[in-house]
Every structure is written in structure tokens, then in C-alpha cells.
Automatic annotation (TrEMBL):
Residues 1-25 form the signal peptide. Transmembrane segments: none annotated. GO terms for cellular component: endoplasmic reticulum; membrane. This is N-acetylglucosaminylphosphatidylinositol deacetylase. Its EC number is 3.5.1.89. It holds the Pfam family PIG-L. The keyword Protein transport does not apply. Belongs to the PIGL family. It comes from Pyronema omphalodes (strain CBS 100304).
Length: 236
């Protein structure tokens, strides 16, 4: 058993290198709105994508709540801006609207999401957001998929979704690199190197300080979403 543990760092290094080798080249020259539900979604889920895209595209982060479930909304808005700066993004809007509460029990109305996109994302050619699984399954995340899908369809925009993985792959860092099929032509895989993973971790530990409870350490140390993102363009 011990020999297996000793082998783990070597195995992870090999799979990480393999994942880096399978990464897509980043598109460039696009106006992209990242649509998120809560401050910290950008760092916990989308960091590899943002780090790959930010140097070559105009990225705007649109967060549809202040993350006020625990009464920390005003702190968390500021944390989001600091986190985005660490990830190379200055253009950030945070919405504070009673129809869009930070709540596991409230599905956000698609037409409301559409009206906010009308107001804040008119310049966007691409909307990037969660897929229908919402990565963590949070109902606010899943609402974004439906709202963005309707809006992009109506406005002739492109829709990119971050793929939701099962539990084992979610916490498996790069361990699925050999078995996960390469993304199809419609898909993109963004992979961070050591420096990118450290940046994403710092976005959590140094910016989103109010969210660094004990269980987050497991996520920032082990999650595949801190190092690899699979993003698919959805035909709407
Ligand atoms: Zn969230």
C-alpha cells in the first residue's frame, strides 16, 4: 500500500504533463462575458479557462449575486474584484437584486437573467457559464445555463459551457488525463501549469478570505477544476 502512495506524486506529475500536452490553444480577439452566480465561482471553477483566455481576449465577469447567503455580500463583492485582478481581469460587475438571491432553494428566472445580460453584456460575442449540471449542482448555477441559453439564442450570441464532472473526476486533480477522451471539435480544454494553479489557489486564499473554511482546502488542493477545464460550445 505504501509503495502506491510513494508512486502517487510521480503519477500525478505524469498525468499533469499529459493534460498540458492535450490542452487547446486559446482563441483570441473575442469579447467574452463570464456569467457566474456567486463571488468565488470564477476562482473555484473557471480559473484555468480565465488564465488561458485573459491575455488574448476581452473578458468581462458578470456575477448575478453578491453571495449574501451568510450576510457577507458587501465583503464578497470586494473579494471578487481582488480575485479577478489576480486572474488578470479588471472588468467586473456584481448584481444585487432581490429576485436573484444567493440560495440553494431558489431557481432564478431565465427572463430576469436575460434582462441583466441585455443591460450588461451587450458587447459580448460569447457568454461563458456553467452547463446544466452547474458543476456543484447548485440551483443558482444551473439557472444561469437556462437563462444564458435563451438569451444567446435570441441575440445570436455564442454560448460556452463548463462541463460538469462526476465526483471522482471532480476531486481527482489530473488523474483522469489518460482516460478522459480528448474534447471533440466543438470543445476546448484549458490546462494550467504550476504557476496557473498557484494563481488560482491564491485567488481563493488571498482574495476570497471569507470563504476559506476547512472544506475549501480539499477543493483547492485536489479539484480538477483548479487545473483543467473542459468547455464546450453549445449550439443554441
Ligand atoms: Zn457558486
Amino acid at each position: 500500500m505504501l509503495w502506491a502512495l510513494a508512486f502517487l506524486p510521480i503519477f500525478l506529475s505524469i498525468t499533469w504533463l499529459y493534460a498540458l500536452h492535450s490542452a487547446s490553444s486559446a482563441p483570441s480577439g473575442l469579447n467574452i462575458t463570464l456569467l457566474i452566480a456567486h463571488p468565488d465561482d470564477e476562482a473555484m471553477f473557471f480559473a484555468p479557462t480565465l488564465l488561458a483566455l485573459a491575455p488574448h481576449n476581452n473578458i468581462h465577469v458578470l456575477c448575478l449575486s453578491t453571495g449574501d447567503a451568510d450576510g457577507l455580500g458587501s465583503i464578497r463583492q470586494q473579494e471578487l474584484k481582488e480575485s479577478c485582478k489576480l486572474l488578470g481581469i479588471d472588468d467586473v460587475d456584481v448584481i444585487d437584486d432581490p429576485e436573484l438571491p444567493d440560495s440553494m432553494g431558489v431557481t432564478w428566472p431565465a427572463d430576469k437573467i436575460g434582462s441583466i445580460l441585455d443591460k450588461y453584456a451587450g458587447k459580448a460575442g460569447v457568454v461563458l457559464t456553467f452547463d446544466q449540471g452547474g458543476v456543484s449542482g447548485h440551483v443558482n448555477h444551473r439557472s444561469l445555463y437556462h437563462g444564458a441559453k435563451e438569451w444567446t439564442k435570441k441575440g445570436g450570441k455564442r454560448l460556452w459551457n463548463l462541463e460538469t464532472l462526476g465526483l471522482v473526476r471532480k476531486y481527482g486533480f489530473t488523474m483522469d488525463a489518460f482516460v478522459a477522451p480528448a474534447q471533440a471539435a466543438s470543445g476546448m480544454r484549458f490546462v494550467s501549469g504550476m504557476e496557473g494553479v498557484r494563481k488560482a489557489q491564491r485567488a481563493m486564499t488571498d482574495a476570497h478570505k471569507s470563504q476559506m473554511r476547512w472544506f475549501r482546502w480539499g477543493w483547492i488542493g485536489l479539484s480538477r477544476y483548479m487545473v483543467v477545464n473542459d468547455v464546450k460550445e453549445i449550439s443554441v
